[in-house]
Specification:
Radius of gyration: 18 Å
Bound molecules: nicotinamide-adenine-dinucleotide, zinc ion
Largest sheet: 6 strands, parallel
Number of helices: 11
Number of strands: 9
């Protein structure tokens, strides 16, 4: 383990450009449940049963109740050492892009600036009728479901659901960020939800160095240059140059 950490540290230190892909795992040490397994369940529903256009059409109140519950958890959460380490790394590098599947906004809270939220944000609401979009940090939401100020129709969360397509402009920005960086760091993602799951493969095909940090092995661990099985909040702080910050 120690060898792998040193190898990864070396690769990261030598790179002047870095792209990072994060998933739910990086926020788990902030008390936000990940999606897979028991802890992702709410009232016995899995995220896959609630985060979809069909679920919302069938029962918008139920879906909103789940989002309101998640907004409360996220509202009370603070960035952990993993988030903070990534904001330090952004300061260190000439070029740095943080691509996140998370909708919690904790990377912004930690101080990262160049962020692509590929699945949108839980703090955004979008009208189901006129597409009017607003930021809303109210916890709990009132009324629930929220209604549009412009046309009174019901609003939906501004997130990308299962079965929905990430806007092409967002995908293009993401591909460009990976292409323009020497090294890609993949943190806390199970690597089973596309298109994020293929981003590491794409980086490898473009001859980038790819480093993975995850509690467990993932389907792509064996193709990456370094794969570290550990908590992101414990490993990421080892990657920035403490000496430069304190000297
Ligand atoms: P995931 O829950 O599938 O996987 C989390 C990964 O993090 C796991 O592989 C786990 O081993 C790892 N992990 C847990 N704690 C860790 C720690 N402390 N340090 C390092 N790794 C840790 O999350 P994912 O990969 O982000 O899921 C894919 C995407 O599916 C989600 O990001 C999400 O956008 C999407 N999804 C969306 C919704 C929605 O509401 N829009 C709902 C469910 C899933
Ligand atoms: Zn409207």
């Amino acid at each position: 383990m120690q060898d792998k950490i040193l190898e990864a540290k070396n690769i990261i230190e030598q790179a002047s450009s870095l792209s990072v892909l994060t998933g739910a795992g990086i926020s788990s040490e902030s008390g936000i449940p990940t999606f897979r397994g028991e802890e992702g369940l709410w009232k016995n529903y899995s995220p896959q049963e609630l985060a979809s256009p069909e679920a919302f059409r069938r029962d918008p109140s139920l879906v909103w109740e789940w989002y309101d519950w998640r907004r409360k958890i996220i509202h009370g959460a603070t960035p952990n050492a993993g988030h903070t380490a990534l904001s330090r790394l952004e300061e260190e590098k000439d070029r740095f892009t943080l691509i996140t599947q998370n909708i919690d906004g904790l990377h912004q809270k930690a101080g990262n600036r160049n962020i692509i939220e590929i699945h949108g944000s839980i703090w955004e609401l979008r009208c189901t009728n006129c597409s009017y979009t607003i930021k809303n940090y109210e916890v709990p939401l009132d009324p629930l479901p929220p209604v549009c100020d412009r046309c009174d129709a019901i609003m939906r969360p501004g997130t990308v659901w299962f079965g929905e397509i990430i806007p092409m402009s967002v995908i293009d920005k993401t591909i460009l960020a990976i292409e323009e960086s020497e090294v890609m760091l993949i943190v806390g993602t199970s690597g089973v939800v596309e298109p994020a799951a293929s981003m590491g493969l794409m980086a490898k095909q473009s001859e980038k160095k790819v480093i993975e940090i995850n509690l467990d092995q993932t389907p792509n661990s064996s193709i990456y240059d370094v794969s570290i099985q550990a908590k992101s909040g414990e490993v990421l702080p080892l990657f920035y140059r403490i000496d430069e910050i304190y000297n």
